[in-house]
Each structure stands twice: as C-alpha cells, then as structure tokens.
Amino acid sequence: MDDKVNYAWVGAFVLVLSGLLVAGVLWLAAGVGGRRAMDDFQAVIQESVAGLDVNAPVKYLGVDVGKVVGIGIDPQNSQQVRLRFRIARGTPIKHDTVAVLKAQGLTGIAYVELSGGTALALPLLPGEDGEPPTIPFKSSLSARLESVLGNLVGMVDRVSGNVNAILDADNRAAIKSTLADLALLSHALAGQRAAFERGVHDAARTAAVASRAAERIAPTLERVEASAAAVERMAEVARSASARAGDTADAATLGVQQLGVETLPELTRLMAELSRLSAVLRQLGDQALASPSSLLVGVPAPQPGPGESVR
Length: 311
Hints:
The chain is an alpha/beta fold and about 300 residues long. It is built from six helices and seven strands; from the N terminus they run αβββββββααααα. It is elongated.
C-alpha cells in the first residue's frame, strides 16, 4: 500500500479553494451593493462637526439609510461645513426633511439623523444644474445648549457689571445713610407711641362729647322745626284770610279770630323754644370760655362746701 502524499497537489488545492471563497465573497458583496441604488444629497451646517467622519452612518428616524461620503469647508462661506451623503433610493427625502447632527450613545461617535417628510410634502429632487439636492440642517442639541449657556453667561456678566456700577462707593454710602435715617425715624415713632395713644383716646372722647351734645340739641331742633311749621301754617292762614277779606267783612272777622286763636299760641311756644335754645347755646358758650377742656373731659365735679365730705 502506497502511503505517500503529494503535498504539492494538496497545497495547490488549498490555494485554489481559498481563492474561490474570496472571489465568492467579493462577488456576493458586489452583487448586494449593486442591487441597492443610491442617490446623492448634501447639507450645509453652521456648527462644528467634531466626531463626524467619512462613512459615518446617515439614519432616517433611527434606520440606517446611507452614509457620509464627504466633509469639507463650504467654498462660498468659510464659516460653514458642507456635507455630502449617499442615501438609499426610495428613502422619503422631501422638502420638509431636516438633518441634525447627533452623537451615538456613550461613545460620542457622531452621525446624521434625518426626520420630517410629511405625506403632503413634495420629494426633494436634484436641480437643473445637476448638483445634489440640499437638505436643510437644524442645529444640534449641543449647539443649542452652547448658545443658551453663552447667552446666559453674557447676561450674568452684564447683570454683575450693572450691580457693581450701582453699588459703588457713593451709592453704598447713600444707602447706609438712608438706613441710619430710617432707624432714627423708627426709634422716634416708637418714642411717640404713648402720645399717639393719648391722641386716639382724646379723639374718642371728643366724639363721645359731640354725640352727647347732639343728643341734647336734637329735641330743641325738633321743637324749633315744629314751631316753624306752625308759623308756616299761620302764614298760610293769613294769606287765606287776606284773600277772603275782599269778599265779606264777616269772613275777615272770622279769619282774624282764627288767627288769634290758633296761631298766636303756636307763635308764643316758638318764641319760648327759641329762648330755651338760646339759653342752652349761651350755657355751652360760657362753659367753653370758662373751661375749654370740659368739651372733651366733661364738667368737673363741684368742690365740696363747708361741712361737706368728698365722696
């Protein structure tokens, strides 16, 4: 039995088999890539693209639809970056589709996220010059946070500068003086608290005295009003009597008698009431002249006479 092995034939077989496997893999890869048609798009971004590399994924609502094929400074504006994408044909890229730069997980690898594309929007097609259609770019979350923080820091700096300008040496001295004056005023008001309380008490007593005086004068005023009404009735009767005097002498005589019987007593009572009112007012005037404080504290008690004890 011949057990010799031809190693040359074995090596050649292995090499041929390996080459066939590599060719098959390349053919399959080329076949899959060829079956998937791609379209070119571009976008202009006005922020840093740190972390974004060529061949970075392009996703539509989280689904991989293409990759980044070019990154460069915009030749028309050096403050902008122009990106070129290659996206699978059939992806709903429309006029309201927007692109935003995002970071993937904790690794920080950047990628481009597409969103939007409502049903009523028109598809985004290449222009007449053959340039790839431009997808609008929206500021990323990090760029917006950086802008907000920058504005906040600027605002804090301005507020700090304004506060320092307000609280200079002169203003601090003026504020200190104002606080000292307020403290003195508070102490002065605290010292006059007893006087304020006495004033309030005196005002209350004055109101009580005025109320008692009004109660005393009210009946007299009522009587004066009644007497005035009686005088008015007397005048009316006199006018009626005078009107009837031209008709008959008997009617005139009757009117004079009625005047003497009905109105003269009322007139007499009116004069009496007016006399009493005058006496009351004269008494109040004499009391005010003799002792002005009596209007507030009342009439003092009379001094005890000889042989009388103080109660």
